[in-house]
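sorry for the late reply, my laptop died twice this morning and i had to redo everyting from scratch. anyway the thing you sent over, i finally got around to it. pasting the sequence first so we're on the same page, its 632 residues, then the predicted structure underneath. double check i copied it right bc i was rushing
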Amino acid sequence: MCGIAGIFDLTGRRDFDGDLIGAMNQTQFHRGPDEGGQHLEPGVALAHRRLSIIDLSSGQQPMFSEDGNLCVVFNGEIYNFHTLSEQLREKGYHFRTRCDTEVILYAWQEWGERCVDHFRGMFAFAVYDRRAESVFLARDRFGIKPLFYSILPDGQLVFGSELKVLKAHPDLPRSLNVRAVEDYFAFGYIPEPKTIYRDVFKLPPGHTLLLRRGEPVPEAHEYWDIPFTPVQAGSESEVQEELLVRMREAVEVRMEAEVPLGAFLSGGVDSSAVVAMMAGLQDKPVNTCAIGFDVKQFNETEFAQQVATRYQTNHFERTVSSDDFDLLDILADLYDEPYADSSAIPTYRVCQLAKQQVTVALSGDGGDEGFAGYRRYRWHMNEEKLRSRLPLGLRKPLFGTLGRLYPKADWAPRVFRAKSTFQSLARNSVEAYFHSVSLAKDDQREKLFSEKMKSQLAGYRAVDTFHHHAARAPTDDPLSLIQYLDMKTYLVGDILTKVDRASMAHALEVRVPLLDHKLMEWVSGLPSNIKLKGQEGKYILKKSLEPHLPDDVLYRDKMGFGVPLSKWFRGPLRDRLRRTITGGNLAKTGLFNQPYLEELVDQHLSGRRDHSAVLWSLLMFEATTKHDQFEL
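ok and here's the structure:
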């Protein structure tokens, strides 16, 4: 795993400062502490930080083609590079290394923009073509690897693996993207392609961008989307058998490495499934690691230990304090822009533990989205039954009124939160799902922002992000639609972002076999009623795994990585919370309705309401933007 950086002059061939590209590259030293390299010529500056995984002796970057006309900087892994290199050799290409980076060069030379169709893996790369005077940017299908870019006012393209790489360029425009602020407080992250800066973008998953000197900047091109094309599934037992074959193969292709390899083992279904597959594919014990908490409600280590014992893994476990809030400022530096998923804290710790044993770790990320594992899918589909029976014209006034009048019950289990259910039933399917996943609901964001901020939004609402994706969804199945929305937003903007930054902070490569695109193309086409069957999410995955995992792992309630935010804010973070929320940088921005912020703090500290999620998002917003001095 690595980090890339670059500058490309779209208007001419000006000389770039080697110190500048070096400084940009140095900001991501943590992504590749093994080696660094850079290349400069008129109009181009490319740089790379390397974490050596395959071909340790000869995989240095930037890497040039044999004729010197192509140059690539690459972050990720191409798992089918052996097959591709054989195909390209048959076409007359000569390889000087045995690494996947060189395959990208000749795949570009042979297939041009369609080269990405041939790659199986996780990747973000840039190919500079000297003859064509072009730069080709590409990102993998699910967005496992990040890629940021911006076109500066003077015609420079700047790009990098993290936002901090671009921020090291003194001419980067840093105007606030107010729509991204609205998105952030709704989602808890800033969804692709937006960033906190108006003129800086994330290349969306499954997209490429070809920029030629002297030509207008085109729109990014989508080369792949999750198909949700129905498959001929056969009987349930046949589906189970085929699923295991496909999953085992997806795991196997991710086990090649010339450095120590292992897996995360949380004790949940997905990571346990990956470990079970790995154990059947190698003779030596699998290296596994788990993080436990000193608060029982957040601790899953007993289930991880069951799997570790069953497969006799080389298991490493550490218990961390439930008061592990000292990471707040470290996280702000890692994520560069507002990011409010507090599970980034235990994710950081489990990556820190894993790095002590391995350099590559496999994870179970993507299983919930692919196999419909989230509880919210069940809630949504239960509500969908009623939505299908009553027209919106009747539901909206009836349940809208009930939603406004019914008291809010933060303390209650979700099934008893009638207010939230009524509010969802008063909406159409897309807006109802948006409501269920929103961190700060519509009415709360209305009170959260200042009048000036709302004026600058000019009617934009975060739900527009869902409407955009829903309009392009390749399915009208109700469950598949919300899975698709999550894959386009939550999976890449939250889950994969969290894992990439937390792992690369420790120079750890994380591979995600459940997001193998061949596997997910097939899984997406399975009938919805074998993913969510009755109230059982991941039904077909769990049934497939019954011979391989204990029922306690497969059929217990999902826990996930959690932290006791509410307790922190009423305890050790109390003073910081009040100081940050009620004054200082947040007040200076002009973005917020300060009396309402003070009301949120007072209600939470008094115990009258639980506003911990919104308060955490405000803390993280302040921590990641305080050096930008945004003002409306």
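Residues 409-416 have pLDDT under 50 and may be disordered.
thats about all i looked at so far, will dig more tmrw
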